[in-house]
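Input for the complex:
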Amino acid sequence: MTFEGVTRPSMDVDIACVGFGPATAGFLVTLSRRLADPSRPPLESRAAPGMPLQVVCYERADDVGFGVSGVVTRARAIRAAFPDLDPAKIPMATLVSEERMLYLLDPTGASRRSVTLRAADRTLRAFHRVEDHAFELPFTPAFLRKHDGIVFSIGQLLQWVAAEVMATGVVQIWPGTPVGEALLEGRAVRGVRLLDQGVDRQGRPGAGFAPGMDVKAALTVVADGPVGAVGRQLDEALGMPAGHGRREWAVGMKVVLDLPADTPLAAGTVLHTFGFPEPEIFGFLYVHPGRVASAGIFVPSWFDSPTRTSYRYLQHFLQHPALWRLLKGARLRSWGAKSILESGRRGEPLLCGEGFARIGEGSGSTNVLNSSGVDEAFATGVQLGEGVIGLLEGGHPFTLEHLERAYVARRRESWVEREGQVAEKARHGFQRGVVTGLVGMALSGFSGGRMSLGNEPPHPAEQIGSVEGFYAGKISALEIARIRADCERRGVPLHDALMDRAGWPSIPLDGQVLVSQQDALLLGGKVQAPAGYADHVVFLDPELCRGCGKRVCVEICSAEAIRPGDAGTPTFDREKCVHCGACLWSCPTRLPGQERVNLQFRAGAGGLHSAEN
Amino acid sequence: MDTVLLLTPTEPDGTLPRAALEALSAARAVGESVWAGLFGARTGKAVAALSGAGVARVLSTEAEALAEPRYGSDVVAATALVRASGATVIVAPALSRVARFAAGMAERLSGRIDTHVTQLSSRGGLSATRWYYRQRIEATLVRAERPWVLLVDPGAFPLASPSGGAAPQLEEVPVEIGPELRRTRVAGLRAPAAGEQTIRPDAKTLFVAGAGWTKKQADGAPHPERAGELILGFLRASGASLGTSKSLTDQAGEGQKVLEFMSHLNQVGQTGSTPRHSRGLSTCCHGEEPHVVGWRFIRERRAVNLDPGCGWARGKADVLYVADAFAVMEKLNALLAAKK
Amino acid sequence: MAAFQIVVLGSVVPDPLQTLEPVATPQGPALKNEAMLPHVLDPWAGHALFEAAHLATRAPGSKVTLLALGPRQKLQQVMMAVAQKVPFELVALDGPAGGFTDAHEVAARLAQAVEKLPGLDRGRLLLFGGWESASRGAGVTLQMVGERLGIPDQFFGVDQLSVVEGGGLEILERVEGGKHQVSVCAGPPAVLGWATGNLPEPKNNPQLGMANMRGVMPALQKAAAAPVGQGGVKFESVAVPRATRETRIEKDLSADQIAREILEWISQD
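Predicted:
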């Protein structure tokens, strides 16, 4: 957005990074070690001649490591960068001690299970394999196994790495500084533009207006994750490789809990679950040291109910008997949500170009067969770092050709690529159903990627079905219409009323583990947004919203920031938004002739204030 | 055995501040025999007020220079009083005038100081209770060093009741307040420019407005003018004091045309104040952090909020009315008007 | 207007949006997971810093120094947020900064550090800080430093500072009843413990951030150790208050009925 007569400030740096996540961590660790190495010739700045190389990183969240998650990872690239890594030095980190996989059956009768699954359930029960409505698989499939891995809080890991990197004094990391867009000149990126401050919710200048600075850089490292604005801007402007697209997503919603004093769970325990609360929803429980656990679920884009939602399902997940017996008496400590790009290599964009390179989850590095992303992202950051050092030492410019040779070639030679190719079509089966999907994953896993089931998913907007279809056989169309009218009148989303009617028990809030959704936003660092920024969720054409009829954005919003509005267009409260981005891939209304949907998810400030979740 | 001195400035007319009578009951919790140290331009009426208050000994410092509340002269006078008394524990009301110099005085006496004390107990040795981290953690502590200066917050202790006894023995303590201590001249008091005085520490009820007042209402639009009318209307009709949440205060700070009668001085909690009203009514908190911070001393709490699952619902309020505050306040103002 | 040397004392506190819980350690009470809690510059110290910078722009040649005693990692983390706001130099001391540390010990360290500041000129010195902190919340440390430095002009709960003709300082301090006391001090040295003041929070300025960091990083690297303890205080109990109320939730009353109930409640004596 430009304004008449406004002089936008600008400055020059050598390298600007967008986002500080595992990928940038890998990049800056690699680069900063070289820059700070007194035995190597100094690399001079071109932007500020006479000064050392000027490297900056702009992170949207109010602090480094806010808004990510607990994770279990084999940490190969991370351990390569930190050979003496001692999990005991990083809060919440510990070696994996045991790993289990649980198939969760349905104790409520409300879960929508296919004929196949119901038959499987009956068989399991008949053979007395079921305890607490769960069946423990005798093994964890090899491709999922993390037994040599580490359980981390990503936020704590990132804070630790950021402190190490900052302490060298050669790079600067700036939190609370959202990047609005890349500065594009044709197909070249010349730097980034920071968000305007002191504007009203519509972005118009108000008291204290400060136009966002233009930071010109010879190299822009785009690492803003799967829902980052800059990455998506480049995809739209420059196009994606043929056949690639961001088709498959999930929103991971998770909590961090203080376990009861007498918990039998040992630190380093990893639990993978599937089957409950709906067959489409996978879950996890990781146990950190000090009787702390991360637990959560993934609600995927191929879960085609337009009233799909996360928070309530998470609460049902936690109450599943097999989990509740471990979590009863625990206390909720923090909460968060984040989108995961499950397209993996099929979602890989143009990895570099004139003046830019892309790393991390937004560059399609996540391995969707192993469900592993943090280490892969870190690895791509290291690869770019090594490439960039080579280019700087050789005095080469950051052109497409040079970056392809220095970075992309490295990436293609690496295990990230090899394993990414195996995983490439592993999840296509989920388009046809849960069982097909699981079989497909196994097939891909065991065949090294040579075999897969299913087909390329369509655009996420086309993956959304109808409420009537989803609840067919459980709730009549007439009743659905009545519920719709009632919710419309009360101005509330549909999911609670539908789930109640479908037989989901109401949640017995106890203020300990089960709290209201709004109360969750207050725990472990309240969600909030600084004043003076524009709304970052925008509904482009209100007419299209009026005609939508589904309003999946309202249902899926992790923090209830998007609510039913008057006259059909939803309202957005930026002070509640946790920037998970689930709305972005849930909008069912594509703009005529475009990839884009009616709901725009732009760069914004604020969100979660927790570095453990 | 500790000896305790109630230390207090006097009002401009020489009377005893109300907060000093509360500090007196705090001092009595320390030891049976309480002495008093008074300083100000005039102290006569305050000395008289202490007759029959069970105070065995009164020390007083009167000087024209003490008409102006300032660090340099106050710290000299107070330190002289404490030294002359020989007391090991000093209890003082946390008036702004006292808070300005008490820590410096403790340094001069090579003693220690604790402020915002809410409880004192001498069972098994003297202990003080105070809040940490903005009323989120409460701790009881014991110090060995003396003198120990304790500042008690207004509203934390009851007014001392008269306890009879003979008129106390009075000692005049002279002080030298040289020109180097009078580099600061007090020019007077200034009331807030906002026009309408909405901070009423002596009101029975505190009305706390949250950010929900300026958000979109059921009809999809915000109604800040109506919100302002309803809030001001209530304050005028009921005489209640106005507190605001941090979010609402921030909005006013951003220069938006929002509730112009509020300023950051109305803010309750976080960097705002911790008021002492006996009743608090919270409205439209819009999910903001309830609400312990800043509400510590409000005994009876009710809230009007549209969200039945909000933090007030579980143990933080006595009553939560799940309702639209605009509608409720409109009716309430009508009822108040009819009462008149 | 003559130039000032403004030294701002301030440290880190847990981000006010966090949930806090005490734990007992061999050194005394501390916060649970203190090392993991995100920290910010104390909000009132932040106001003091912004006011210092504001004054410095009106009195050319003035210098603003932030003197902070806190754990070096946390100071570094906090600098990432503060350094984009206003220009300043940093002098850092590496030591604990929790609410249970003893103010007397902290004041002794800070006063020593102020005296050692290169080129210190008492005739130009303004010692700023927050009137109290969001951690200990006592409002005593700054005053004790001022006393140790022998400064007899101290002001607390400050919301405004103006330089008047002749070089005097007109200062507004919060007093009872929502009012301000207006004082005029002949000039530096003076101590000002700021309340919130009237300035809006400065916007993030990346260029300023980069310029500040050139001084901040070396300052952090050379931070002298400043171990401070709990002053020999014995803590008999340290706890989070329990929610004790049985909340009555009224969902079905009309606005009229609610208004009547509230009226009855506030009319009681």
